[in-house]
Design brief:
With 314 residues, this protein is mainly α. It has one domain. It contains 16 helices and no strands. It is globular.
């Protein structure tokens, strides 16, 4: 009987995580397809900052232009890498975009107002994203960071440059060209969605399994103290794999139980790294880099949360 109950709980939690995440993966895949069809590699190279720090800072704020969560940001980042985006800029975008977008700004503000939590989440996200981006991008070549598929895509030419023709493009031709680009974008988005979807399914299943097997009452008993509360909330964020558009309302339920540093660390670390996004990283980065992308944000967010608790006197 208990086994049947656990299966039902697992199925419910799996569907909850998956259904919440899949629309954002679809949005990210569609954005990836549009980038592939309408953005040229030369444009990316021309617009990118020349120095690593500028590229990392630019990447941290790029989510304002591409408002995607942690599920959708991975296919978008991979497509931008294939278009020539520098490693440092792509990594900063990958880590920061799930919070650095208007949708999550609004949800965080509605839940907590413009105060320590909102400001702390903003500052820590920028500092961690830029620092990790610089660490990974400062000496590594793209080939040692990215998988071949993240560098090889987006170079096929679909159509020709007609500037040398001795006739003008008429309206019908422009419409046909636009139609071809949109169809190509949909095709790319479909391939991206199904390729990244397998990681999302596996990650959602692992997150649901952890939620089912690990009693939350036992975890809550560990959530006290300057360090332990932050550590627990980060592990909870990793396990729950809640979308960044709604995680503020979940964190709000812990306000009277956990320290401010723990709440902020939950909100800053969770959108950067969770179970499902970790698995999706493996479709873009080499294994060693995936390990860095998990451990470096974890340690930096932990230190930031503990420092906030000490500063506030908890």
């Amino acid at each position: 009987m208990d086994f049947i109950v656990n299966i039902e709980v697992f199925a419910t939690r799996f569907l909850g995580i998956f259904i919440e995440a899949v629309p954002f993966l679809l949005l990210g895949s569609l954005t990836s397809g549009l980038i592939e069809s309408f953005v040229k590699s030369d444009d990316i190279v021309r617009l990118m900052p020349r120095n690593r720090l500028g590229a990392a800072l630019g990447g941290a704020f790029l989510g304002l232009a591409f408002p995607v969560c942690e599920c959708g940001v991975v296919p978008v980042t991979r497509r931008l890498f294939s278009k020539g985006m520098p490693v440092s800029m792509g990594v900063a975008f990958l880590l920061a975009a799930p919070f650095m977008n208007p949708i999550v700004f609004a949800s965080t503000y509605i839940a907590f107002g413009f105060g320590p939590v909102f400001i702390g989440r903003f500052v820590i996200t920028i500092v961690v994203a830029v620092t990790v981006a610089l660490v990974i991008g400062i000496s590594a070549k793209p080939g040692s960071v990215l998988k071949p598929i993240a560098m090889a895509g987006g170079h096929a030419k679909h159509g020709h440059d007609d500037r040398g023709h001795d006739h003008d493009h008429d309206h019908d031709h422009d419409l046909a060209s636009l139609r071809e680009k949109l169809l190509h974008a949909v095709g790319v988005a479909s391939d991206e969605f199904f390729e990244m979807g397998r990681f999302l399914i596996l990650g959602s299943a692992l997150a649901a399994l952890m939620q089912t097997l690990v009693p939350q009452e036992s975890l809550l008993a560990l959530g006290t103290g300057n360090v332990l509360s932050v550590l627990f909330m980060q592990l909870l964020a990793y396990i729950l794999s809640v979308c960044s558009t709604v995680d503020s309302f979940l964190a709000l339920a812990f306000v009277n139980t956990f320290t401010t540093g723990a709440i902020i660390s939950f909100l800053s670390f969770g959108p950067m790294v969770d179970i499902k996004s970790t698995l999706m990283f493996t479709g873009v980065f080499r294994r060693r880099i995936v390990l860095y992308l998990v451990l470096l944000p974890f340690v930096m967010n932990l230190l930031a949360g503990v420092l906030i608790n000490l500063a506030l006197g908890y």
